[in-house]
Fold each of these.
Amino acid sequence: MKLAVAGKGGSGKTSISGTMARLLARDGRRVLAIDGDSNPNLALTLGIPHDRLTAMPTLPRDLLDRSGGGAVLTKTLDEIRASHSVEGPDGVTLLVMAHPQHAGTG
Amino acid sequence: MHATVRSVIEAAPGEDVCILDTEASPEHLSRGTARYADGLVAVVEPYFKSLETGRRMATLAQDLGLERVLLVANKVRDERDLAAVTEFAAQHRLELAGVVPFDERLPEAERAGVAPLDHDPDSPAVHAIGKLARQLAETP
């Protein structure tokens, strides 16, 4: 299941995303949570402390090879997990697109 | 960056759970970040501007070809709120997949800097979100 969660700012979409991710992981599912917001706070609703978030690498631009005209990942998902994710409570894997201080550059 | 996220979602195995918390604007969806998701959950609050944003997001997701486009109502306080959301969903032929009650425990958790689940795992909102998550994960 691959779900995108959307909504106006303040709608609670991030609380819902984070809590769904934690509870499904607790049920024994492998969960990948992606914070696609340029002002990210999914880590907080997953229960990942702020200092761990600022220390984690964001997804780099060179992960994508566009030389063939399309867009191909230059690493496997497992490699990306290993190098660019942080593991949160209940075993949720979090990938972030941007750090709060880079808001607007994503 | 949106293209990278799109490719990561595409690469995620379908038997796993992948949850993308999108940017709070319909523009993010129009860039196609969510294209490889199976579904879109549009979280709305029970007032017109929020419902209308949810509807625009749902339309964009349908245009992207997403299979399941669902509304989830959040911060629902009473029967009147519930009626407003139910009517809006019916009027626009959108599936209302879940209703999460207004719950003071969520803003409390945010102020305390902890996850809603760690702040109070038995709060009404956490219960409703759990029910929604399992329902979404179990429906093929």
Amino acid sequence: MNHRSTEAETRPVVPSVGTAVRSGIEVPVVVDPQNFPFQDPGRPGEFPFTRGIFPDGYRGRLWTMRQYSGFGTAEESNERYRFLLERGQTGLSVALDLPTQCGLDPTDPMARPEIGKVGVSLSNLSEMEILFRGIDLSRISTSFTINGTAAILYAMYIACADRTGVPREKLTGTIQNDILKEYVARGTWIFPVRPSMRLISDTILFGNRETPRFNTISIAGAHMRDAGCTAAEEMAYTLANGLAYVDELIRRGGDADRFAKRLSFFFYVHMDLFEEVAKFRAGRRIWARLLKERYGVTDPKAQMFRFGVVCGGSSLVAPQPYNNVVRVAIETMAAVLSGAQSIFTCALDEPFQIPTEFSAELALRTQQIVAYESGIARTVDPLGGGYFTEHLTDEMEKRIESLMAEVEAYGGAVKAIEDGWLQLRIAHRAHERKRQIDSGELPVVGLNCFRHEDQTAAPEEVFSVDPQASRRVLEKFDAIRDRRDAAEVERALDRLEQAAAVDDENLMPYLIECCHAYATVGEMVARLKKQWGEFEEPVRL
Amino acid sequence: MKPTTETAPLRGKRILVAKPGLDGHDVGAKVVALALRDAGADVIYTGLRKTPGYIARVAVDEDVDAVGLSILSGSHNELVDDTLEQLRSLQADDIPVFVGGTIPAPDQERLRERGVRGVFTSEIPLADVIATIARMLS
């Protein structure tokens, strides 16, 4: 590598264990209850749910093992899903390609280089029918990491269930559908903030009636975390976004006691184990209190903070990639000790590529070993009542609440995001973190300490998407456009466009009609853009 | 402290940091943009989802000394080739181009063969990124 610097020699070879968790909260060397009194954490399954939302923890139901997966064509991804299900995975998590996420058909010039690259291409219902071939949608729960076009993919999933005779009320799964964090960190926004918030409310209110077991939003901190946030910031900004959705749903006439039951959350778990556990315990407590005290929610199920996690992400590094297996194992333990409802474990080759079958299986096995061999899933919140756990939970709670107060003082999450204020903060935080890693202040084994000249630089097995995938996607796209009833498509799209022009008209029935007619994602988005325009990114540095 | 060539090796240089294609992961682009600015450069950041044609046009209109492309979606080969082609069509292929992102080793070689002057993956220290770009522009 020709970037080996002279600075490398001056970095500390033996790092320090430090005195603070990574959010910057200093921790005592010894915690005893005389010097560090803590709040009574209550009991699992009882308000404010610090110790977990279920009284019986994982004995009643283990977390869902859900590996994010999808690439190339619907046929290839269907094959990978069946592989994962055969090996004991308990839920599906669909990765979509960027054209599908950004609302472009594969024929769009911007779409062409990206077809099937970071996920599967799903431009219309016929592709989804292939994707779930041989998989019973009434038995398996499916999570879609989809945001800008979430309402459309949700409509397509419902249409797909309709076609296979699965009743809508049996559908389980999640659409991410969290546009606010897309403006902040992940970038697959399409429409301006206000109509996007409307579309999200449409899905949630429709879902309450038609798919009562399906989570219509997964308010996500994960991507903001990977973009540079600390654990405390990740939780604070996610809860702030959550409040923005609740406010919008109430404005639309939603009943918080009802819709809040279907709000779920999604986070990263990184390496600082007790910090992560404290983050989730504090987050559960803050959310439950906010819903009860601010919104008068009385149904305990609607006060519960349910969350999925991903272990890995930017905590994984390219040098000495096999070390990543160890990192993911520790992070999985943190997730289980936190009471997560679903876990996705990244594969060791995450910094390089889409996982190979080998690395994908190893990532799943990591969860299974934690679940069935380590024993940590037997007792609810096994760290609860520990002096350090409770002390750090209280400290994280204070830090998270003060960060949330800053967002509120600015004018709330929507304003902070429309102005680019939050984006700017996170960019500066990412810069700071990179400098801490470069200097060795934040130790990363194999990257800034314990390096050596002949260490492994890349995993042995390389995954690549079939180069013909893009051609096949385009061929199938042409074929479906020839086969469908063009007049029916036009009628459905016209009705969608007219409905979009009427404030507070729920668009879900119109989108489902378009999907049944095999209208494409790009066609539906184009009609909505005509009414709503596009988001203008505030570019600030 | 007055900036010197040591603290501000890119003083007086104009650098365009761009996100071609649909990839929305901009943390790397922003961190490098901030580091370039700390090193004295005048930085223009395009924001997300720009076409190679747009990026080449901005590079020419803004008379930049270098163009940095950030791509994490796996489409780097297509998008970099296209951007180089667009720069050539504007007779601006003398502007050095560097690339950052998730770029597998064989593709790093390939990009260099096509004329890319530096390829930076996320683990490379910022000081090394700045030093390489400063050498590129000296």
Amino acid sequence: MSFGKFGKIGYVSETKVANFVKYLEEGKIMATRCEKCGKLYFPPRADCPDDLSMEMTWEELSGRCKLLTYTMANFAPTGFQDDLPYIIALAQCEEGVKVYSLLSKDIKTDEIHIGMDLRLAPLRFPNGRITYELEKV
Amino acid sequence: MDVAIVGVGQTPFSRGCGISIRELCFEAFRDALEDINLTPKEIDASVICSAPEYDQQRSPAGLISEYLGLTPKPTFYAESICSSSSTGVKVGYSFIKSKLHDIVAVIGFQKMSEISSAEVQERMGRGADIQWESPFGTMMPAGYAMFAHAHMQKYGTTEEQLAKIKVKSGKYSLLNPLAMYRRAVTLEECLKARVIASPLKMFDCCANADGASCVIMTSEEKAKKITDTPVWVAGIGAASDTLSTTSRANLAGLDCAVEAGKQAYKMAHIEPKDVDVAEVHDCFTIAEMMAYENLGFCKPGEGGKLIDESQTYIGGKIPVNVDGGLLSKGHPIGATGGSQIRTIVLQLQGRAGKTQVDGAEVGLVHNIGGIGLYGNVTILRR
């Protein structure tokens, strides 16, 4: 399983956490937990820098999170221009980790406020690629 | 043994300079050697600084060293994106302090017009974590815009307060002949400008530019033979933070700047209140406001009040970016740190003309790479 289909545009195809995409296809957003020190990582990591362990377990996130900060982008890098404007957001998951993603287009601009409840969910593109986004609860 | 800066130089910053990178570097180098008793042949080593993704030339240090007549002396390449030439100054300091070299030229450059706008757009998208953040279409203004919203939420900072930082920049830009934009702007113009990444609007953002800077550093012994007005490197701090936004502990400030500042203050045996004039990395207005707080010019959350009270103008508590800053000068990535150091050196030598801060003894340079990725603080003393 390649990681190459992750995101609207991807820059990384080979990674030890490529199974993240397989889980995403199944509707699950997975983090990794270091078996040695117990630290939870999202985005998932294959290697723990705290104890140099490579023993990790996949663990599903609930998807429940709160908005930490955001911006509505009116300019975009190559390949993203057709989607403008879009809202990039950082959210805090209830498990303590943070997630960087886009806010769903369903959320109206005047509804956005820091601290609002959001749900992290998989999103499929018509061309078969896959990602996750932050949806309205 | 102390380390001195004996000469500083800079080209005009412009959009589409019409000359090559070697020629840009030559002009900054020539400017730095003007009025000091030093010839190129006496320089022991050079440190060349740029962000390579904007260069056509592979390994530009060799090219620049040759064109400036510095071969066969060793040349090195330093990179920390927007703070590359501050990193170069740290490398130069280490060379001199270790007595490996006595006289070092640090040359920073960027010709951002060397690649097409489409190529710039493509590279901008890869400035974030390419595995987990770039696939969402992020770029530099979006990163700082997210800091701005967090700062506004946490401290009640307003868009007007951010705009006031650009108004200050515009005022001083009129006095800097090397600045790309030499134009005063009103608060209303700033607030009505088109939104780039909310809440940041056009005038909250600096612009890409072409330009070069040069800083000549020497040992204490050599400095006295080269100039009557050496400026001393009193403190140097450097730190890093995570590239990924998800791993940042602080969303309303740059922890790498706080850490680099602490190191530099400690080394210089001074406190923030002892700084007479400062250059901070205002790639965006919010970046300057966070710098006020991160460097201890005011308490966290009081950056808005500091600009409301005009305390960062000449005559205020701590004049900041009185050369117009990146917001007006433009931001030729690899040249920026050297340009900031040049401004402070001229201030401490009493050569800053109409923007001279009377009696400036201690100056500070805050130069950030990326979205708070690399923090560099340099303290200079007359």
